[in-house]
Amino acid sequence: MYEPTDEPPDGYFRLLYGRHPAHTFAKTQNTPALHQVYPENELWINADAAAELGVADGDRVMLENQDGASDGPIKVKATQRIRRDAVFMAHGWGHASQGLRRADGKGASDAKLQTAYKLDPVCGGAGLRVNFVRLMEA
Amino acid sequence: MRQAFLLDLTQCIGCTGCVVACNTGNELGEDTNYIAIGDHERGTFPEVVAGIDNHRCYHCTEAACVNVCPTGALFQEDGLTRMNADACIGCQYCVQACPYDVPKMVNGVSTKCDGCRDVTRAGGSPWCVQTCPSDALRYGRREEIAAEAHRRASVMRAKYPNAQVYGESQTGGLGMMVVIPEDPDTMGIPADPAIPTVTEAWQDFAQPIGVGAIALTVAGAGVAAVIARRHQLHGGHEHGTAETAEAVAASAAADQDEERS
Ligand code: SF4
Ligand code: SF4
């Protein structure tokens, strides 16, 4: 049954996403006590891959996906704890609302970068980790 | 009774729950925290060793912060170092002296973990301990906490051969028994924290003089108050010494600010 998914095109990374333990979905980024412990999400990228792109830990970059959708800027976290062909960010950031005094404009939205999906042929579940992004100058 | 915390860095998942519980329970306000969570890593993917940093007051027995504090704002009780912010004059000696870089100045006074004095003296657990989802934090009698720490370290040695307990000997024994999976230096914790020699000199020599100087200042303020009071009585106003003392404190605070800038 298993079918391998597409590999990222040259210069692109598979976009992975998950949670930050202090935050719940896209709801808590503006909550004072939670905002202060993790105010913005970061882009985890393999440190060697980042160095090859001339990007350093703490830099801010824009992201653009395979269909031209873009978001950011997002802060780079260069680390050895991720493989070379993927990047990771926590879900819930990239708010655009002046009413969210703290969270407005902080970090990037993984959702805005997910313009493609694949359906599981048996149960119909949607797989979203089939989007690819490249790093652009902020 | 001598109390202690257990901080098990083989179990901490870096969720920041303790930071938030401490911040809200102690009503510290936004961006003031007694705990800081970070991480460290070494190696190259996929052979990477990574761990969580959980930085907070270690509640030293030979506590440099207590030794240098000229007013008794920092003091020891139940085997922990406490902070009475009302008595802090903002001199920042503790900030300079602490070997773990713990006390921070907020609004002109020193702040640090005081072991949740109010909560624990009422029989409760510190906020961080109450919230930790991975049982990385405990609080209790120091012998029991130490025994639990050693038990956990010996279990962990099956997985991490260098697993050990940090806090038996440092600064005369810490009120924080830390279970670490590797050597302290690898974890970014000083194996042998240096207590600045100046703090001992301060305690034995300079502090008594400092206390004398404060006594003189207070005596001087008293004289000034009497003079001021006479002047005011001549002018037909009644003014107590309390206000004058406030004025002295205010000008002392202004001097402090000048020194700092
Ligand atoms: S860690 Fe620093 S602040 Fe805490 S008791 Fe020791 S010297 Fe004082
Ligand atoms: S609450 Fe517990 S697991 Fe979470 S960061 Fe604090 S010590 Fe670690």
Structural key phrases:
heterodimer, A: 138 residues, mainly beta, Barwin-like endoglucanases, six-stranded mixed barrel, 2 helices, globular, B: 261 residues, alpha+beta, Alpha-Beta Plaits, four-stranded mixed β-sheet, two-stranded antiparallel sheet, 8 helices, binds iron/sulfur cluster
How would you sum up this structure, described in words?
The complex is a heterodimer of chains A (138) and B (261). Chain A is 7% helix and 30% strand. With 138 residues, chain A is mainly β. In chain A, the strands form two sheets. A six-stranded mixed beta barrel of chain A has the order 1-5-2-4-3-8. The model of chain A has no long low-confidence stretch (mean pLDDT 97). Chain B is an alpha+beta fold. Chain B folds into two domains: 3-195, Alpha-Beta Plaits; 197-261. A four-stranded mixed beta sheet of chain B has the order 8-1-10-9. In chain B, strands 2-3 form a two-stranded antiparallel ribbon. A two-stranded antiparallel sheet of chain B has the order 4-5. In chain B, a hairpin with a 2-residue loop joins strand 6 (104-106) and strand 7 (109-111). The radius of gyration of chain B is 22 Å and the shape is globular. The interface between A and B is medium-sized, with 17 and 20 residues. The complex binds iron/sulfur cluster (SF4) (2 copies). Residues 12-18, 37, 54, 131-132, 134, 136-137 of chain B line the site of one iron/sulfur cluster.
Concise synopsis of the structure shown:
The complex is a heterodimer of chains A (138) and B (261). With 138 residues, chain A is mainly beta.
Order of helix and strand elements from N to C terminus of chain A: EHEHEEEEEE
Enter the CATH topology name of the largest domain in chain B. Alpha-Beta Plaits
Count of domain modules of chain B: 2
Bound molecules: iron/sulfur cluster
Order of helices and strands of chain B: EHEEHEEHEEHHEHEEHH
The number of helices of chain A is 2
Shape of chain B: globular
Assess the beta-strand content of chain B as a share of residues: 15-25%
Q: How many extended strands of chain B?
A: 10
CA(first)-CA(last) distance of chain B: 42 Å
Structural class of chain B: alpha+beta
Radius of gyration of chain B: 22 Å
Q: Treating each run of at least 4 consecutive H or I residues as one helix, how many helices of chain B?
A: 8
Please state the average pLDDT score of chain B: 85
Structural Rg of chain A: 15 Å
